Amino acid sequence: MADDRGSAQQEVEEVESGESEVLHDLKKGIYAGLIATIPVAILAAGKQILGLIPELDLINLMTSMSGIPWNGTGWVLLFIVGAVLGMGFASLDSHVSDATTLGEAMRGALFGFLLFVILMIILIPLYQNAGFGFAFCGGVLAACLVFGVVMGVVYEQMKPEHVN
Predict the structure, then answer these.
(1) How many Cα atoms sit within 13 Å of 107 on the Cβ side?
(2) For residues 25 and 158, what is the distance between their CA atoms, to the nearest angstrom?
(3) 14 with 24: CB under 8 angstroms?
(4) Among 44, 50, 29, which Cα is nearest to 143's?
(5) 106 in Cβ contact with 153 (< 8 Å)
(6) Spatial separation of the C-alpha atoms in residues 43 and 139, rounded to whole Å
(7) Which of 44, 53, 77, 155 would bridge with 62, disulfide CB 3.0–4.6 Å?
(8) What is the pLDDT of residue 163?
(9) Within 10 A of 87 (CB to CB), how many other CB atoms are there?
(10) How many whole angstroms separate alpha carbon 158 and alpha carbon 162?
(11) Rounded CA gap, 149 and 106, in Å?
(12) Are 68 and 74 in contact (CB under 8 A)?
C-alpha cells in the first residue's frame, strides 16, 4: 500500500513538473506494450522451433513486407508494433475506464480480441492461397489474447490510480 502511494506521488510529481498526463500515459503504454510483446515473441520462437502451425509465420511475413533482407527485421518490427499497440491501448484506456468497471486485464483481453479481428481482416487476403484454418486462427487469437492480457496487467501495475 505504501508503495502504491509512493508511485502515485511520483506520478503526480512527474505531471506537475510539466509532463502532460497524455504523454505520461503513452509512455506507460509503450512500456506495457514492449513487455507484453516478450511472451508473444517466446510463443513465436517456440512455434518455429517446434514446427507448429507452419502457415503462421508472422515474423517472416513482417520481414518480407518490410523489404529489408536482414533476418532480424521481423523481430524488431514485432517489438515496434508492440510499442505502438501499447500507445493505442493507453490512449483508449482512459475512455474505456469511464464506460466500464472491467479491470485492466479484461480490458487488455478485449483489446487483444479486437486486435485479432483486425488482424484477420488484414491476414486473410495476404494468406488467401495458403489454406489456413482453425490452427492458424487459433494461433493468432492466442497470441493476441496473451498480448492483451499481459499488457493490461502490466499497464495496471504502472497506473497506481487503477490499483484498488
Answers:
(1) 25
(2) 9
(3) yes
(4) 44
(5) no
(6) 9
(7) 77
(8) 45
(9) 17
(10) 9
(11) 7
(12) no
Look at residue 99 in the predicted model and tell me its pLDDT: 55
Residue 69 — φ and ψ, nearest 5°?
A: -75, -5
Q: Which residues contact 83 (CB under 8 A, 6 or more apart)?
A: 30, 33, 34, 37
- Rounded to whole angstroms, the Cα distance separating 148 from 156 reads 12
Cell 505520461 sits on residue: 24
Segment-wise mean pLDDT, segments of 10 residues, the chain, 164 residues? 52 59 86 96 91 83 86 93 94 69 84 94 72 80 95 85 50
Q: CB neighbours of 139 closer than 8 A, spacing ≥ 6?
A: 47, 52, 53, 56
How many residues in total does the chain contain?
164
DSSP states along 77-115: HHHHHHHHHHHHHHHHHHHHHHH----HHHHHHHHHHHH
Of 88, 78, 98, 49, the residue nearest 143 (C-alpha): 78
Task: List, as one string, the DSSP characters of the chain.
Answer: -HHHHHHHHHHHHHHHTT--HHHHHHHHHHHHHHHHHHHHHHHHHHHHHHT-STT--HHHHHHHHHT---TTHHHHHHHHHHHHHHHHHHHHHHHHHHH----HHHHHHHHHHHHHHHHHHHHHHHTTTTT--HHHHHHHHHHHHHHHHHHHHHHHHH-GGG--
